[in-house]
Design goal:
Structural class: alpha/beta
Helix content: 25-40%
Bound molecules: flavin mononucleotide, FE2/S2 (inorganic) cluster
Strand content: 5-15%
Oligomer: single chain
Amino acid sequence: MNETIVTLQKNYEDRAGRQKTRITICAGTGCIANGAQAIIDSFRLNLAKLAQSNATLAIDTHDDHSETGIIGSGCQGFCQMGPLISIEPNGIFYVKVKQSDVDEIITETVINGRVIERLLYIDPATGLRCRGKAEIPFYQKQHRLTLELCGIIDPEDIGAYIAHDGYKAAFAVLSESSPEMVCAEILKSGLRGRGGGGFPTGKKWDLARIEPSDRKYVICNGDEGDPGAFMDRSVMEGNPHSVIEGMIIAGKAIGAKEGVVYVRAEYPLAVKRMRNAVKDALNKGFLGENILGSGFSFNIDVMEGAGAFVCGEETALMASVMGRRGMPSPKPPFPSQQGLHGKPTIINNVETLATVPIIIRMGADIFRTIGTEKSPGTKTFALTGHVANTGLIEVPFGTTLNEIVNDIGGGVLTSDGKRSDSFKLVQIGGPSGGCLTEENKSLSLDFDSLKSIGAMVGSGGLVVMNHNTCIVQVAKYFMNFTQNESCGKCVPCREGTKQLLLMLEEITQGKATLETLTDMEELANAVRIASLCGLGKTAPNPVLSTIRAFRDEYIEHIVDKKCRAGQCKALQKPEIHADICIGCGVCAKVCPVGAITGEKKQPHSINTEICIRCGACAQKCKFDAITGV
Ligand SMILES: Cc1cc2nc3c(=O)[nH]c(=O)nc-3n(C[C@H](O)[C@H](O)[C@H](O)COP(=O)(O)O)c2cc1C
Ligand code: FES
């Protein structure tokens, strides 16, 4: 083993070995948003105070004399329950911690080793309090591989990564393998790109490897423009060195000496952590000239993205890196032939690259035992929407929707916060993905099964929606997003998405006919086929997949002028419910157009011809007797 790795690992282990207690506070974006920074500061402040009177406590993790380590980790996944705190070696896991709890945690748990019951997670299914992560169903049902160290190690400590076998795969590849061997191993592992398309990574690398060129590039796609997705951000924030190690291995595989990490500018923490990790890796000789004495050189630049969804598309991304406007161009030529600055380039997603060192370490054959035959390994998903436990999860391919929604997600929530055992739909794969219904509950979630029903894994967004969701509004929401994000270069996408959005608007306004529905399907197919890049080609997916699964609800909007979820205001009829109204007269008083009449203490009525639907009456009614305004 390389001397640098051995020394760094030993230093870290010596330091960690002296720590009696290790407190890990989630410093992911979700927990920080919920107040984690104040908690971290309070811990440091309180421990500093305690340290003055009690010599067994110290605060600085990086201090060789410290016996209590406090680290801010990347996202631990269970964002819904944040801020989260783990205390080792006691194996205690506290949820929804407040700054005011810090003092008690230090006295009770850190010093006296007692558990504060009130801060433990309660499993809603059994009512039992869970002491540690191992007892919580949200974690039990996952297989954390790429996310294994996220939320465990300090992402700003290269020693922590190395202590968990970091950079050993890169060292093995640089010292023992040829580019052919690396490509062959990745091909054998069956790894498919996690950025949406599921293209075999080994094949992509091999295509770039065989291209003769003086310069080649490796690009890490950290753009992650899908609304609601935060998988790649969590990896970059929680374990940035795993991405760098994946890029070094990719560089060796194709013969590239330069890499670029393209990170969405709206992810400042990910940018900071990636830059910090690159700097540390360079300092320790894992990047730069003659890496670990192997004769191989590789440098990485971290670049902030332009903030547009289309910049995640390969050709647009490269244009953006080269300082041009982020617009796609036709393929071929493929990036592996003519990419950045006209040179062979591979572009891989963050999660794909972070999985590479794991494959090299465990071996392709063992990797293949996880997941399904044609989709080996695991996939991270951002689980959001009407589900009890939202957050970041990682499961083997082949896990069913039922397992994700009910076992990990803790079940569906109705609009009044109750639990339901069924959902209306699950939007998968982001704005250009598809929708899954109860019928697909037992479907194996993998690239091919999803494709066979017209959906896709996509980047990994999973939005669960309950029965109070209007299907047309869902399609409109996603179409609005892609229409806004269309770069406008090609007519089908620029004009087509606009027309599709208008048609959906007509349906929600009660102005559409059945012909509108037919036209919409025809246009959606035309946009899908004729668009220049993946944005336009997949933009109609939400429209097509929701029509496929919920045609009757579209027809209900068009023919019966009815929105069963009550979300299309134009289709609602103003109504005062006689069984609820007590005739207090407040509504009549606030109505600006005199549309409400009625005797005192008698149910009132509303003249729908006069009503302007300003909603003033419903806002004032204490009994919720008025709907449809
Ligand atoms: C409009 C659009 C947006 C995309 N956004 C991303 C993104 O944010 N991150 C990503 O990795 N791939 C994104 N992709 C897919 C990439 O273009 C590319 O296929 C992927 O990064 C390749 O990496 P992989 O083989 O590791 O999946 C997007 C594609 C399209 C068409
Ligand atoms: S940010 Fe803390 S669990 Fe996600």
